[in-house]
Amino acid sequence: MSRLAASFILLLVGALWGFGFVAQTRAMEVLGPNTVVAIRFCLASLVILPFALHEGRRAPLSLGSRDWLVFALIGFFLFAGSAAQQIGLLTTTVTNSGFLTGLYVVMVPLFAVLLFRQWPNPIVWPAVVVAMLGIWLLSGGQIGALVIGDGLTVLGAAFFALQLVFISRFANGTGRPVTLSMVQFIVCATLGLIAALATEEVSWAAMISVLPALLYAGVVSSGIAFTLQAVAQAHVSAPTAAILLASESIFAALFGAIFMGDRLKPIGFLGCALIFAAILAVETLPAWAAKRRAAAG
Questions:
Q1: What topology does it adopt in the membrane (predicted)?
Q2: Is the pTM of this model over 0.85?
Q3: Taking the domains of the chain in order of start, what are their residue ranges?
Protein backbone atom coordinates (compact mmCIF):
# COMPACT_ATOMS: atom_id res chain seq x y z
CA MET A 1 0.00 0.00 0.00
CA SER A 2 1.33 3.45 -0.87
CA ARG A 3 1.67 6.17 1.75
CA LEU A 4 -0.92 8.28 -0.10
CA ALA A 5 -3.46 5.44 -0.06
CA ALA A 6 -2.82 4.89 3.65
CA SER A 7 -3.39 8.60 4.28
CA PHE A 8 -6.74 8.55 2.45
CA ILE A 9 -7.77 5.51 4.48
CA LEU A 10 -6.94 7.31 7.72
CA LEU A 11 -9.05 10.28 6.61
CA LEU A 12 -11.90 7.85 5.93
CA VAL A 13 -11.43 6.45 9.43
CA GLY A 14 -11.71 10.00 10.78
CA ALA A 15 -15.06 10.38 9.01
CA LEU A 16 -16.35 7.05 10.31
CA TRP A 17 -15.31 7.96 13.84
CA GLY A 18 -16.82 11.42 13.52
CA PHE A 19 -20.30 10.01 12.91
CA GLY A 20 -19.61 7.45 15.63
CA PHE A 21 -19.99 10.20 18.24
CA VAL A 22 -23.59 10.67 17.13
CA ALA A 23 -24.32 6.93 17.24
CA GLN A 24 -22.74 6.55 20.68
CA THR A 25 -24.76 9.45 22.07
CA ARG A 26 -27.99 8.03 20.64
CA ALA A 27 -27.25 4.64 22.22
CA MET A 28 -26.64 6.20 25.62
CA GLU A 29 -30.09 7.74 25.67
CA VAL A 30 -31.29 4.36 26.98
CA LEU A 31 -28.13 2.37 27.81
CA GLY A 32 -25.27 2.84 30.26
CA PRO A 33 -21.81 3.73 28.91
CA ASN A 34 -20.19 0.41 29.84
CA THR A 35 -23.05 -1.49 28.21
CA VAL A 36 -22.54 0.50 25.01
CA VAL A 37 -18.80 -0.26 25.06
CA ALA A 38 -19.44 -3.98 25.64
CA ILE A 39 -22.01 -4.31 22.84
CA ARG A 40 -20.03 -2.11 20.48
CA PHE A 41 -16.88 -4.20 20.67
CA CYS A 42 -18.70 -7.53 20.85
CA LEU A 43 -20.24 -6.69 17.48
CA ALA A 44 -16.85 -5.56 16.19
CA SER A 45 -15.27 -8.86 17.29
CA LEU A 46 -17.90 -10.90 15.47
CA VAL A 47 -17.47 -8.86 12.28
CA ILE A 48 -13.68 -9.14 12.23
CA LEU A 49 -13.26 -12.74 13.48
CA PRO A 50 -13.52 -14.54 10.07
CA PHE A 51 -11.07 -12.08 8.50
CA ALA A 52 -8.62 -12.55 11.38
CA LEU A 53 -8.81 -16.34 10.99
CA HIS A 54 -8.19 -16.00 7.26
CA GLU A 55 -5.21 -13.71 7.93
CA GLY A 56 -3.80 -16.22 10.42
CA ARG A 57 -4.00 -19.08 7.92
CA ARG A 58 -2.12 -17.06 5.31
CA ALA A 59 0.52 -15.61 7.65
CA PRO A 60 4.06 -16.93 7.04
CA LEU A 61 4.97 -16.75 10.74
CA SER A 62 3.00 -17.46 13.89
CA LEU A 63 2.65 -14.91 16.66
CA GLY A 64 4.69 -15.32 19.84
CA SER A 65 3.46 -14.86 23.40
CA ARG A 66 4.97 -11.36 23.50
CA ASP A 67 2.92 -10.39 20.43
CA TRP A 68 -0.31 -11.56 22.04
CA LEU A 69 0.50 -9.68 25.25
CA VAL A 70 1.22 -6.49 23.33
CA PHE A 71 -2.02 -6.89 21.38
CA ALA A 72 -3.90 -7.30 24.67
CA LEU A 73 -2.20 -4.21 26.16
CA ILE A 74 -3.19 -2.18 23.09
CA GLY A 75 -6.72 -3.52 23.61
CA PHE A 76 -6.66 -2.25 27.20
CA PHE A 77 -5.63 1.20 25.98
CA LEU A 78 -8.50 1.13 23.50
CA PHE A 79 -10.97 0.05 26.21
CA ALA A 80 -9.80 2.72 28.67
CA GLY A 81 -10.03 5.40 26.00
CA SER A 82 -13.44 4.25 24.78
CA ALA A 83 -14.88 3.94 28.29
CA ALA A 84 -13.63 7.39 29.34
CA GLN A 85 -14.97 8.91 26.13
CA GLN A 86 -18.31 7.10 26.47
CA ILE A 87 -18.82 8.15 30.10
CA GLY A 88 -17.78 11.67 29.17
CA LEU A 89 -20.60 11.83 26.63
CA LEU A 90 -23.06 11.69 29.54
CA THR A 91 -22.28 15.32 30.36
CA THR A 92 -20.55 16.82 27.33
CA THR A 93 -21.80 17.48 23.81
CA VAL A 94 -21.05 15.45 20.69
CA THR A 95 -19.12 18.39 19.27
CA ASN A 96 -17.01 18.94 22.40
CA SER A 97 -16.28 15.23 22.64
CA GLY A 98 -15.09 15.16 19.06
CA PHE A 99 -12.87 18.18 19.58
CA LEU A 100 -11.31 17.06 22.86
CA THR A 101 -10.74 13.52 21.64
CA GLY A 102 -8.71 15.14 18.88
CA LEU A 103 -6.15 16.21 21.48
CA TYR A 104 -4.42 12.88 20.96
CA VAL A 105 -2.83 14.57 17.96
CA VAL A 106 -0.71 16.50 20.47
CA MET A 107 -0.11 13.59 22.79
CA VAL A 108 1.10 11.04 20.24
CA PRO A 109 4.44 12.66 19.31
CA LEU A 110 5.04 13.57 22.95
CA PHE A 111 4.47 9.99 24.12
CA ALA A 112 6.61 8.65 21.28
CA VAL A 113 9.52 10.84 22.38
CA LEU A 114 9.06 10.41 26.14
CA LEU A 115 8.53 6.63 26.09
CA PHE A 116 10.67 5.47 23.18
CA ARG A 117 12.83 8.42 22.07
CA GLN A 118 11.19 8.25 18.64
CA TRP A 119 11.56 11.67 17.04
CA PRO A 120 9.08 12.46 14.25
CA ASN A 121 9.71 14.34 11.02
CA PRO A 122 10.40 17.99 11.99
CA ILE A 123 7.27 19.20 10.18
CA VAL A 124 5.14 17.27 12.68
CA TRP A 125 5.84 19.69 15.54
CA PRO A 126 4.51 22.87 13.87
CA ALA A 127 1.67 20.80 12.37
CA VAL A 128 0.76 19.61 15.87
CA VAL A 129 0.69 23.21 17.12
CA VAL A 130 -1.52 24.26 14.20
CA ALA A 131 -3.86 21.29 14.75
CA MET A 132 -4.02 22.01 18.49
CA LEU A 133 -4.92 25.65 17.77
CA GLY A 134 -7.56 24.44 15.33
CA ILE A 135 -9.11 22.14 17.92
CA TRP A 136 -9.15 24.98 20.45
CA LEU A 137 -10.89 27.31 17.99
CA LEU A 138 -13.39 24.57 17.16
CA SER A 139 -14.37 24.55 20.83
CA GLY A 140 -15.12 28.27 20.63
CA GLY A 141 -11.69 29.54 21.61
CA GLN A 142 -12.32 29.16 25.33
CA ILE A 143 -11.93 26.53 28.04
CA GLY A 144 -13.89 28.11 30.88
CA ALA A 145 -17.08 26.13 30.19
CA LEU A 146 -15.51 22.68 30.50
CA VAL A 147 -17.40 20.07 32.57
CA ILE A 148 -16.33 16.75 34.07
CA GLY A 149 -17.28 14.95 30.86
CA ASP A 150 -14.74 17.05 29.00
CA GLY A 151 -12.02 16.01 31.47
CA LEU A 152 -12.89 12.35 30.98
CA THR A 153 -12.74 12.87 27.22
CA VAL A 154 -9.22 14.30 27.50
CA LEU A 155 -8.24 11.25 29.59
CA GLY A 156 -9.68 9.07 26.86
CA ALA A 157 -7.61 10.95 24.30
CA ALA A 158 -4.46 10.07 26.26
CA PHE A 159 -5.30 6.36 26.10
CA PHE A 160 -6.06 6.63 22.38
CA ALA A 161 -2.65 8.27 21.93
CA LEU A 162 -0.98 5.35 23.72
CA GLN A 163 -2.86 2.95 21.47
CA LEU A 164 -1.53 4.71 18.38
CA VAL A 165 2.05 4.81 19.68
CA PHE A 166 2.10 1.16 20.74
CA ILE A 167 0.67 0.01 17.41
CA SER A 168 3.45 1.88 15.64
CA ARG A 169 6.16 0.67 18.04
CA PHE A 170 5.27 -2.98 18.58
CA ALA A 171 2.46 -4.23 16.35
CA ASN A 172 3.24 -3.11 12.81
CA GLY A 173 6.16 -5.50 12.46
CA THR A 174 3.95 -8.54 13.03
CA GLY A 175 2.11 -8.11 9.74
CA ARG A 176 -1.17 -9.08 11.45
CA PRO A 177 -3.30 -5.90 11.62
CA VAL A 178 -6.64 -7.74 11.48
CA THR A 179 -5.60 -10.12 14.26
CA LEU A 180 -4.53 -7.10 16.31
CA SER A 181 -7.96 -5.57 15.78
CA MET A 182 -9.72 -8.77 16.83
CA VAL A 183 -7.69 -9.02 20.06
CA GLN A 184 -8.35 -5.33 20.80
CA PHE A 185 -12.07 -5.84 20.35
CA ILE A 186 -12.25 -8.99 22.47
CA VAL A 187 -10.39 -7.26 25.32
CA CYS A 188 -12.71 -4.23 25.09
CA ALA A 189 -15.85 -6.37 24.94
CA THR A 190 -14.77 -8.47 27.92
CA LEU A 191 -13.80 -5.54 30.15
CA GLY A 192 -16.87 -3.58 29.09
CA LEU A 193 -19.16 -6.51 29.92
CA ILE A 194 -17.59 -6.95 33.36
CA ALA A 195 -18.01 -3.24 34.10
CA ALA A 196 -21.58 -3.21 32.76
CA LEU A 197 -22.69 -6.21 34.85
CA ALA A 198 -21.12 -4.66 37.94
CA THR A 199 -22.49 -1.13 37.60
CA GLU A 200 -25.43 -1.00 35.19
CA GLU A 201 -28.77 -2.59 34.44
CA VAL A 202 -28.69 -4.36 31.09
CA SER A 203 -32.02 -4.37 29.23
CA TRP A 204 -32.65 -6.29 26.00
CA ALA A 205 -35.61 -4.04 25.19
CA ALA A 206 -33.40 -0.96 25.50
CA MET A 207 -30.79 -2.52 23.23
CA ILE A 208 -33.37 -3.24 20.53
CA SER A 209 -34.69 0.33 20.69
CA VAL A 210 -31.28 1.75 19.68
CA LEU A 211 -30.16 -1.15 17.50
CA PRO A 212 -29.26 1.00 14.44
CA ALA A 213 -26.96 3.18 16.55
CA LEU A 214 -25.36 0.12 18.15
CA LEU A 215 -24.84 -1.51 14.75
CA TYR A 216 -23.12 1.57 13.40
CA ALA A 217 -20.96 2.01 16.50
CA GLY A 218 -20.03 -1.68 16.57
CA VAL A 219 -19.74 -2.67 12.92
CA VAL A 220 -18.65 0.57 11.23
CA SER A 221 -16.93 2.95 13.67
CA SER A 222 -15.33 0.06 15.60
CA GLY A 223 -15.00 -3.10 13.52
CA ILE A 224 -14.29 -1.50 10.17
CA ALA A 225 -12.69 1.79 11.25
CA PHE A 226 -10.22 0.44 13.83
CA THR A 227 -9.17 -2.34 11.48
CA LEU A 228 -8.59 0.16 8.67
CA GLN A 229 -6.55 2.22 11.13
CA ALA A 230 -4.34 -0.76 12.00
CA VAL A 231 -3.84 -1.61 8.31
CA ALA A 232 -3.05 1.96 7.21
CA GLN A 233 -0.86 2.80 10.19
CA ALA A 234 1.72 0.29 8.99
CA HIS A 235 2.55 2.76 6.21
CA VAL A 236 2.75 6.06 8.11
CA SER A 237 4.31 7.12 11.41
CA ALA A 238 2.20 7.40 14.55
CA PRO A 239 2.45 11.25 14.73
CA THR A 240 1.45 11.58 11.07
CA ALA A 241 -1.44 9.14 11.58
CA ALA A 242 -2.60 11.15 14.59
CA ILE A 243 -2.73 14.38 12.58
CA LEU A 244 -4.67 12.67 9.77
CA LEU A 245 -7.09 11.12 12.26
CA ALA A 246 -7.65 14.54 13.83
CA SER A 247 -10.05 15.05 10.93
CA GLU A 248 -12.58 13.21 13.09
CA SER A 249 -12.99 16.47 15.04
CA ILE A 250 -14.23 18.18 11.90
CA PHE A 251 -16.52 15.30 10.96
CA ALA A 252 -17.86 15.12 14.54
CA ALA A 253 -18.75 18.81 14.35
CA LEU A 254 -20.39 18.34 10.94
CA PHE A 255 -22.45 15.32 11.96
CA GLY A 256 -23.22 16.85 15.36
CA ALA A 257 -24.69 19.87 13.58
CA ILE A 258 -26.71 17.74 11.16
CA PHE A 259 -28.08 15.13 13.55
CA MET A 260 -27.77 16.56 17.09
CA GLY A 261 -28.43 20.25 16.65
CA ASP A 262 -24.95 21.34 17.77
CA ARG A 263 -23.79 24.59 16.21
CA LEU A 264 -20.33 25.94 15.44
CA LYS A 265 -19.39 29.53 16.17
CA PRO A 266 -17.78 31.36 13.24
CA ILE A 267 -14.37 30.98 14.86
CA GLY A 268 -14.88 27.23 14.68
CA PHE A 269 -14.69 27.29 10.90
CA LEU A 270 -11.22 28.82 11.19
CA GLY A 271 -10.37 25.88 13.46
CA CYS A 272 -11.49 23.47 10.73
CA ALA A 273 -9.26 25.25 8.23
CA LEU A 274 -6.25 25.03 10.54
CA ILE A 275 -6.70 21.29 11.08
CA PHE A 276 -6.89 20.78 7.32
CA ALA A 277 -3.76 22.91 6.95
CA ALA A 278 -1.93 20.67 9.44
CA ILE A 279 -3.04 17.57 7.52
CA LEU A 280 -1.85 19.04 4.23
CA ALA A 281 1.47 20.04 5.79
CA VAL A 282 2.38 16.56 7.02
CA GLU A 283 1.29 15.06 3.71
CA THR A 284 2.96 17.42 1.25
CA LEU A 285 5.93 19.18 2.86
CA PRO A 286 8.09 16.08 3.59
CA ALA A 287 7.71 14.89 -0.01
CA TRP A 288 8.46 18.40 -1.32
CA ALA A 289 11.57 18.64 0.86
CA ALA A 290 12.75 15.21 -0.32
CA LYS A 291 12.36 16.25 -3.96
CA ARG A 292 14.35 19.41 -3.32
CA ARG A 293 17.15 17.42 -1.69
CA ALA A 294 17.17 14.96 -4.58
CA ALA A 295 17.32 17.80 -7.12
CA ALA A 296 20.12 19.50 -5.22
CA GLY A 297 22.09 16.23 -5.02
A1: Multi-pass membrane protein
A2: no
A3: 3-289
